[in-house]
Amino acid sequence: MSKWSELHDEGYAAAEEGDLEKAVDYLKKAVTQAESKETKDELCQSINCLAVVYQAQGQDDEAKETFGRTISLRPDTVELPAAIEALADLYAYDDDEKALELYAESLKEYTRLGEHDSLFDAQNKILAILSFSDDLSVLNERPLSKAEEENFKRQADYGRSLLGEEVTSDAEPAELVQRVDSYVDSWQDAEIDTEELDEMDVAKGLGALWGQQLAKAFDWTWVCLEGAGNLYAVVSKDRALVINPVYFVKSCLEMPELDCTIMLAFNMLQEAGFDEIDEKSYENVMEGVHRVIPKPGRSLSMAAGRLPA
């Protein structure tokens, strides 16, 4: 193990344990070590980790400057778009225009590097900002191509297979959505053997199946929102509402503490709980659906789950 690796790992471990001052000390040493002896990627790993710790300490200006250093170094790795996205997160609190500009840049870099799975977080953050914006003109909606439609059908078939052989082909949307919700709960509770399952494939399968049921039950439609970096989502007929099913499922699989509100949202749609939303608002449903008392073992809503610790 190299000296840089030892210092970086010590800093990372200290941050995980909540000892942020110790983390800063080790990560600064790791940065110094990497500046002279290691690769640009390793240097930027330590710089980004240091910036995250600064952010956790509430030192946003230091975090911005530190993420900016990675961006100026332009590493040809995922550390670059990760830094750009993180910097956008910091601006999202007080400068939507700057945040959107940075998120768009991060999407381009993730795409260039082939880090397609990493796109989801940045895309959903763009959608979250735009959903609360007065100007939705940047959302260029287009219908899916035949190839894209077939892809979602294949993914939905895989999602259905995950739910078990007892799920019949004529199952009602409400039943399938409930089963998706329950499957996510079981994953979060470690009741499913996930060793041979790819988390992203599962998220795509269950998300596609859920979206398929929204289309059947409420006449929603799969679309591509190009203004959010080719984000595939389901939208209501009047475009008042939008859900990014794959992103929500992926977030739940990654965060066991996140309350899965898939069935709750479906029930609210059945009860016309969103009738007051104006058409073409693209209101992000899962940002606002939460329980007063989460399911046992859960502590976060979707909106809270996106906030930095």
Overall form? globular
Order of helices and strands: HHHHHHHEHHHEEEHHEHH
The helix content is 55-70%
Radius of gyration, in angstroms, nearest whole number: 21 Å
What this model shows, in words?
The protein is mainly α and 309 residues long. It folds into two domains: 3-114, Alpha Horseshoe (Serine Threonine Protein Phosphatase 5, Tetratricopeptide repeat); 141-305, no CATH class. 61% of the residues lie in helices and 6% in strands. The protein has helices at residues 3-17, 20-37, 40-56, 60-73, 79-91, 96-112, 119-131, 146-162, 173-188, 199-218, 245-254, 262-270, 285-288, 302-305, and strands at residues 141-143, 221-225, 231-235, 241-243, 283-284. A five-stranded mixed sheet has the order 1-2-3-4-5. α6 runs antiparallel to α7 (119-131). Residues 305-309 have low confidence and may be disordered.
Brief digest:
The protein contains 14 helices and five strands. It is mainly alpha-helical and 309 residues long. The protein folds into two domains: 3-114, Tetratricopeptide repeat domain (Serine Threonine Protein Phosphatase 5, Tetratricopeptide repeat), CATH 1.25.40.10; 141-305, no CATH class.
